[in-house]
Amino acid sequence: MILTSAPSAVGQAGRRGPDVRSDAWVRLEVRPEGGVQVELRSRVERFYGAAIRAQAAALLEAAGVPHAHLEIEDGGALPWVLAARLEAAVYRAGFTPVSDVRPPVTRPSTPPSPRERRRRSRLYLPGNEPKFMQNAGLHGPDAVILDLEDSVHPGEKDAARLLVRSALRAVDFGTAERMVRINQLPLGFEDLEAVVPELPDVILLPKTERPGQVRAAAERIRHILAATELADHTVWLMPILESALGVEHAYRIAGAHPSVVALTIGLEDSPAARGVVTPRAGPESAWARARRVTAARAAGVQAIDSVYGDVDDEAGLRAWAEGARALGFVGMGCVHPRQIRVVHQALAPTEAELTQARRIVEAFHAAETRGLGVVSLGSKMIDPPVVLRARRLVDASQAGG
């Protein structure tokens, strides 16, 4: 049986209203007979009405819904958004699709994300707000985070999960790395089942406190990829430490699995968990932030800072980002596109640092050419880790900053 609820079941999803854009509201009422009737309200019905109706009919057929009244209030939704809203309504009405109802993959194919890629900025995008997703790549972040956790109301987790899955198939995020912040485990396992087959580059694990949580997520990802014949693909992990216990276990978490590429911090939850009243003042979070950097470096992964929440305070953001770089962080989160430029500038090396890095790299090449095992610059001996950092700095500057 396909039907798992009473024939009079109703399911609805999405948002409606005069202020809604790039979204659609869908109401599906299952009926015992009469075929499928579609009632469409759209400002672009003259141009796209037939396509919208055809898409809805095809999805209902795939879901095994033979008789229904379907209302669609279109607020400028693109096909990938409409597909997610229709699918959510179908599930909420009690149907399990009998064939694939996902939209086709229309985004450009991108190469796998390298472990050491640049992650200066990560732009958070609420997982149930399609209007923020479609053009996010135009702002030039190093990564976008499709968020299924704190930005999504508990009653909308299922719909957001389908919307994010659809976005991963259809949206061109440009050169940005595609990240998904799932919910805290075990709810996050449901998120993984939905999004991992769409091959996001990185999964963020919120409120991580123990290395076992990292290994559990990695194992579930491995099973999902194997089941979809993608066993050779790697989905990276980025644990978020947001509690005192997470900070204490920072090094073990960072080294819990080979797929961990970075360790980051949640400064809104972490201070509260440690009994701190004012999380932004600075000194009370300095030790926890430094601890994360040390743990990340010791485990050989990147250290990524939290977000700076005051969107209007550009000077404060710049000072925070410069302080983050001084601590050893290589990136941070952004809650608004206009923060990206400031973060990139603040995390960029100075000209003096670049000049010194180039001198170190040149000295290393000169030593190699002469067959020397020791690298020196003036009167100073240069250790291999210093050469490696210099080379990364030069490579990053040549790649654009």
Question: Helices and strands in order, then pairings?
Answer:
Blueprint: E1 10-14, E2 23-30, E3 36-42, H1 45-63, E4 68-75, H2 79-92, E5 121-126, E6 143-147, H3 157-170, E7 177-181, H4 187-195, E8 202-205, H5 211-227, E9 236-241, H6 244-248, H7 250-254, E10 262-265, H8 270-273, H9 283-299, E11 302-304, H10 314-327, E12 332-334, H11 338-347, H12 351-369, E13 375-377, E14 380-382, H13 384-398
Parallel strand pairs: 3-4, 5-6, 5-12, 6-7, 7-8, 8-9, 9-10, 10-11
Antiparallel strand pairs: 1-2, 2-4, 13-14
Tell me briefly what this model is.
The protein has 401 residues and is an alpha/beta fold.
Give your account of this protein's structure.
There is one protein chain. This protein has 401 residues and is of the alpha/beta class. It folds into three domains: 10-92; 121-347, Alpha-Beta Barrel (TIM Barrel); 351-398, no CATH class. Helices cover 40% and strands 17% of the residues. The protein has helices spanning 45-63, 79-92, 157-170, 187-195, 211-227, 244-248, 250-254, 270-273, 283-299, 314-327, 338-347, 351-369, 384-398, and strands at 10-14, 23-30, 36-42, 68-75, 121-126, 143-147, 177-181, 202-205, 236-241, 262-265, 302-304, 332-334, 375-377, 380-382. Strand 13 and strand 14 form a beta hairpin.
